[in-house]
Amino acid sequence: MAFDRRLVIRFDWTIFWSVLALAGVGLLSVVSASYRGPHKPIDPLVVRQLIWIAAGTVAMVTVVLFDYRALATYAYPFYVISVALLVAVQVIGHSTGGSRRWINLGFFHLEPSELAKLAIVLVMVRYFREEPPKGGWRLRQMIIPAVLLGIPVALVLKQPDLGTALILVLITVTLVFVSGLNARTMAVLGLAALCVMPLGWHYLKPYQRQRLVSFINPQADPLGSGYHIIQSEIAIGSGGPWGKGFLKGTQARLNFLPEQSTDFIFAVFAEEFGLAGSLVLLILYAILIMRGTWIARHTRDRFGALLAIGLVAIVFWQVAINIGMATGLLPVVGITLPLVSYGGSSLIAMMLAMGLLISINIRRYFF
Amino acid sequence: MVTVLALVSVRLYYLQVMQHQEMTELADRNRIRLLRVPAPRGLVFDRRHRPLVDTQPTFDAEIVPEDSTNLSETIERLESYLGEDHVADKIADADEEGRPPYEPVLVEERLDWPKVVALEAHQLDLPGVSLEITPGRHYLYGKLAAHLLGYVGEVSREDLIKQTAYHMGDEIGKFGLERGWEPFLRGQAGGEEVEVDAVGRRLRVLKEIPDTPGESVVLTIDLDLQQAAEQAMEGKNGALVALDPNNGDVLAMVSHPAFDPDVFGAGVKSADWRTLMSDPNHPLQNRVIQGTYPPGSTFKIVDSIAGLQEGSLTEDTAYSCAGGIWFGGREYHCWRKQGHGTIGLHNAIVRSCDVYFYDVGQHLGIDKLAHWANLLGLGLKTGIALDNEKSGVIPSSAWKQKRYHERWYPAETLSVSIGQGYVAVTPLQLAQLAEMVANGGTRYQPQFVKEVESLDGGVAKAYPPVVEQHVDISPETLQIVRDAMADVVNGPGGTAHKAALPGITVCAKTGTAQIVGNKGSLVAGEDEDKMPEKYRDHAWLIAFAPKEHPQIAIACLVEHGGHGGAAAAPVVHDVMQRFFQLYPPAPQTPELTEDRANRPAIARVLEDDTADETAER
Prior knowledge:
The complex is a heterodimer of chains A (367) and B (617). With 367 residues, chain A is mainly α. Chain A has helices at residues 6-9, 13-34, 44-65, 71-92, 112-128, 143-158, 162-178, 183-203, 206-216, 227-239, 250-253, 265-298, 302-326, 344-363, and strands spanning 94-96, 99-104, 109-110. In chain A, strands 1-2-3 form a three-stranded antiparallel β-sheet, covered by helices on one side. The N and C termini of chain B lie far apart (108 Å). In chain B, α14 (300-310) packs across α16. Chain B folds into two domains: 36-66 and 101-219, Penicillin-binding protein 2a (Domain 2) (Alpha-Beta Complex); 223-268 and 284-609, Beta-lactamase (3-Layer(aba) Sandwich). By secondary structure, chain B is of the alpha+beta class. Classes of the chains: A mainly alpha (367), B alpha+beta (617).
């Protein structure tokens, strides 16, 4: 492929720098979360995160070089590979804390559910890129997407990973809405969702139910399932308006926070950088999301627009649920904070997604 | 999206600005834990500053259940090393009492050395288990003066509610001196503000508050004398108390059988406790202040003083003793069934004639007798700083009316006159009687603490003598009684020759406390030795010495010892002898020396031909 000068001129620096800023915040937070005192060596976690940020940045820039439109061709194969990996994780997966989520690749623990998010975006965008019939998509046409969604959701739930399953559903729902839905279909689907809810409760694992109960009343079991919410709120609240300062957060350093470098990394950050830091973080996400939706609106091909929406949806829902959970607004589900949480798969997948977003933005002029 | 961001921002504002204070407090409470460092308890010294009780490091096993990854396995291992199976129960008990998470549970106190080594060596297999080094109470002489020194134990739940300064697991004085002087001995616990992580590991000390050791207490007890007294009472049940008649200091206090106070400090095991409680000899009872016994013939001192002071009796009053008198249709015996013939006051005391004092009592009447008994401290609490002191009983007509709703019968006065019937006194009260005769009528509050020493070695609190009462007793009366008591030991026909010391005039009065009420029908001295021990009489001796400048007053009771002269006099002899070795009497004036030079000689001559001298009642 010949190098196109437009790639440089129209490169989306807003997204690029926002992504790097968020990754920087992430790195700082991982340092804080793994900090154990002035005389302790730096945790290898930090080094790994740094390597992944570098690798992610390379991946992000590389993806920009490719024409995203070619992805339509690879959507189904990519989907099949992702599903195959989800099946593989059940068989040869590496289990931690009672759930199988990782495949050990020797140098890297691959988390297929992170790829599944991208795959579901691609496959849904591929399906909905056709203009909907007049009046919007009908119920009949929802069967294929339902199956496409159902397979990975079922596999992810089996891990079990309620958070990712929820994100997959929310991404799909977002795309279905944006791509135009028949009013009747919407009503039927809404009703169906309401009917499924009590059934869903039935299928929840006891610990998951416990979390919902704890969410409603965390003090019911302050040392058990309510512990996470309470400790997270304490960390955030004790940070105050300006924070305790870098590496001065006691909640994180003394291990009071659960999953402090992944799911509860926001609490680590908020404790040390306060309301001011938290708002800066929110603003960075807002910039990413608003830029993404702007790109979606200004892209002339439907595939690109839907793809942008799908990618933004991943970021939006994960941020909303993760921070909502850390601040006690939502029940606890294991969802990472995009670009900030520790973890190679999620970081690289998110940076790839952002690279795609830049790619769409550059090529909306290429017709 | 804007809605979501706004919602999150509002929530953040609520948590980080509005609830900031509260959340900061919660975060600190999470990470900062106060660890109490108990202060070493103050030492206890004898009057010559020799240590009796000290504090030595002991090892206690603790467990923080939250720190153990596999609690049941840890408990199992711990129990096998300790050879106990109560660990799980202790944890359950502590949790029930509201133990906060990560607060250690005391599993076993005062581990012996092999257990300490076992736990230390297997530390890695016992996550959450730690050895705490705490200052532990140590009684250097075991059972010595156990009732006076008392013991310490873990603070009870009731105490925790009353005393806010105490915490679960603290040591507190439970009995005796340890209890009474708790505020001085205890000291002030120090503490450490320690930062801990989520699993309770102590990471660093943020703040240290040094502890203040307890203050030391110096007793009026003399270790050597106490040891002599314990030895003299060895193998006997009973009590002995020695006072300094010049100020009320307790020089020695023995109650036998005793207990080992170390048993309590170790967190008394239920088996040990049951043994102590079910022992028919009541080792936990301090007989010196809690045992009430009929004073027997020692009460004749009260009869004499009362009669002489009231004028119903003079030195020359003589009565005839024919071995008993008839009164109210019943015969009242004298202990000497052949009688004493016509006998005067001096010899009536020396030979302890019962019939003589029946007459003295009759002439006085019960109420005057009771009045004088009370004046001399009998039937009243002495006010010694020990718990559960008994007052005993001195009957009077008013007392009987109140107690039994009956009038007083004159015949009952006869029993009272010889210290029987309703009369019951404690050994300490009788020691005070000896003290008052010795010092001329002053009753001091018995004190066993000389001073509390401050940490710099100065006197934090002194205990000057406290005069409870001064009774005016005429010098003539005192002279008559003292002379008679001197002859009880040294004179012809005296009943306590075994208490005599060479070169020192010991004054004494024997007594025999009947414990079988209807033994009037038995002829005393005849089948006494054949009786089962538990029906045998208690033996009393009260004494003071030297006669001229008394330095020591003693009451001694030997339970089921038989006659006072036989059982109690040798005990008092040993104690007095040791006392005067330790504190030789002041040089005497020539006149007094001459006086005493004669008496013991006479006594020694007459001792042999007074066959029944000790068989008085």
